[in-house]
Amino acid sequence: MRTRISLTRDGDAYRVRLTWPQADAMVGALTLLAEQHFSDAAVALQLGMDRDEVATLVDKLAGDHRTTREYVLDPRELHAVHAALTAAATMFLVGSTYFSAENFHVKLSFHRENFDALALSLVQAVSDATAPQ
Question: What's this model's pTM, rounded to 2 decimal places?
Answer without folding.
Answer: 0.93
